[in-house]
Structures are given as structure tokens and as C-alpha cells.
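tool=predict chain=A
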Amino acid sequence: SDNKRVGARAMEAVMALPDGTEFVMGPERFECAEVLFNTALDDGLAYTKELSIPDAIMVALRDMDDETPAALANVFLMGGTAQLPNFSARLTQEIKNRVSPRLANHVRVKALPPFYGWTAAAEVAKTPNSHGKWITREQWNQYRENVVKYRCSGM
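tool=predict ok
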């Protein structure tokens, strides 16, 4: 319809590649991240069998028996996806929609600086109990996550 075309044009933005090539992107700028919040298509076909990010957070909190105001107030985001415009606001709302009204006002989602994960890992690496836990690329290629479980149990 004409209204859909007008709405789609309003979402268009000119993007530039490093070589200077420009192109126009529309709603796909936002739709590509939608699978992180909604793992099913409108027709019910699954994008993925994995949980959405808000559902995975709720499962983690329930597994810890900690769906408490303190836990809900300390949801931290790291990585490139966390830097998407309005990502943290959307995730906050999605979590609020999944908790009781009594807990909804406690939900706080904070996006950390892009390299915070590396900084935190560097700090952990300095602790005495992390020595001997390093995993080489060869070990990872051979044993995958099993080497992590073996090396880091009891850390």
C-alpha cells in the first residue's frame, strides 16, 4: 500500500562504505536484529531454535533462583551488538514484559563500553588462580569447550 511505501522511505538512510561507495538501506537496518528479540517469523516459521536474548536472560535468572530486584537491576550488555541504537532500551522493555509488575520497575539494562569484555578478561588473567588455565589454539581446535570445562573447573 501507499502508506507502507511512505513509511519504508522514512526509514531509508544513505550508508557509505570505507571506499566511498554509497547505497540506500531501509527497514532492513532494523529488521536484521529483530531475530535477537523474536525468533519466529510472522508466518510462524522459526528463524532459529535458540531462545531470544530476553528469554535467555529470564531462563538464566530462573536457573539461579534469582529473579530478584537486585538481579534484574544488573543486566549488563557487552559486545558489538550491544552498541546497536536503542538495543538496551528495547531489551529493557522486553524483560519488563516478562516479569511481574512488582519487579518491572527494577529492571535496568546497561550497555558497557565496547572493549569492556577484553578489559575484564585482562583483569581476571592477572589473578593468581587463573595461572595454568590458559588454552592454546591447538588445544581449542582439538577439544573445543571440553578443554574450557577441564581447565576452568574450580576457578
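The CA atoms of residues 62 and 149 lie 23 Å apart. The chain has nine helices and four strands.
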